Automatic annotation (TrEMBL):
Gene Ontology molecular function terms on file: DNA binding
Protein name as it appears in the record: Transcriptional regulator
Membrane-spanning intervals of the chain: none
CDD domains, A to Z: HTH_XRE
Domain HTH cro/C1-type as annotated: residue spans: 9-65
Pfam (any one): HTH_19
Source organism superkingdom: Bacteria
Amino acid sequence: MIESFGKLIRQARKEKGHSQRSLAAILKLDFTYLSKLENDRADYPPKEDVIRSLARNLDLDEEQLICLAGRIPQKYEEVLKLNAQSMPMLLRRLRENPEFAQKVFEAANEEEST
């Protein structure tokens, strides 16, 4: 089970054989910022382009990593805006009703696999 954004990127970086400095150089980031991300100590989630670059270089799913970082992929922002009034209710229901959430996620996974 994935525990956090930081732990996932740290694990993937080590599996790829990169040091923080070498990966930061590839990504054109300060290695201290990468360290903050890996330790879940950054003041805010990284920008989407940084997350996508991390995912590409670490062979991780870009959209999954964006969501794990606490962001919403830009291509879904329009859907959220069009349904802005309903989104808080949907998110509450997902949080408060695990059975409902499971059904929603199962339906989404079915769509992906067909």
